[in-house]
Design goal:
This protein is of the alpha+beta class. It is about 15% helix and about 20% strand. It has three helices and nine strands; from the N terminus they run αββααβββββββ.
Amino acid sequence: MRLHVLALSMIAACLLTAACQLNQPQTPTVPEPTTTTPAPTPAGPAPTPTPLLGSPGKPSPSPTPTPSPGTTPEPTPTSTPPPSASGCGDPVPPAISRINVTVHLRGADAWTLDSTPLVGPDPDYCRAIGFTDGRSFCPVRPEGNPERAACEAYVTGIATDTGRPGPTWTFDGHFCTGPASGCANSPDNQYQLLVYQGGTFQACATSGVCGEVFADR
C-alpha cells in the first residue's frame, strides 16, 4: 500500500513538472549578427572617369555664320559719281558694252566715220536718262545733253595714240597717222575719223570693247 502511494506521488510530481515546463515562457532564439566587411579604400587619388563618346563637354562658342552666296544684301548704290566721271552726273552709266561705228559723211577727198559708245543691256538706265522706247542698249546720254561728252569719256577712256578722250582708231592693225596711212584722227573730235581709202576701220575703248565698219570708197 505504501509503495502504491509512493508511485502515485511520483507520477503526480512528474505531471506537475511537465505542466510547469509547458507554462514557462520560451526564450526566443536570437540570430547571430551578420558581420559586413567594408570594401577596401583604394590608395592614392581617385581615377578620373573616362568620358563617353558623344557626352557633352565644355560648350564651344558658336561660329559667326557666313552668309551664303546670293543671300548677302546688296549695298545701296551711291549716287555720287566717281572722280573719273567728272562732269558726268547721276545716274552714272554702266560699263561700255559696244561701239557703234558708221560712215557719217562722204566727202570728195575723205570720208568721215563716226563712233558712238553704247552701254547695256540696262533698260532701267536707258529709261532713266530719257530713252523711253524700251531699248536696253543706249548712248550714255541723249544727243545734245550737256553731260554727254563727259559720260562718253568716262566709259570709253583715253586713245592710245593721241591721248585724247575717246576710242583708239586703227586701220589694218596700225594707227591712223595721215593720208599716207589711209586714215587720220579728226582734229576736232576723237570719236570721228577721216578715211582716204576703202577698208575696215576699227574703234576700240580702253577696256578692249571695239566696233568696226567697212568703208567701200
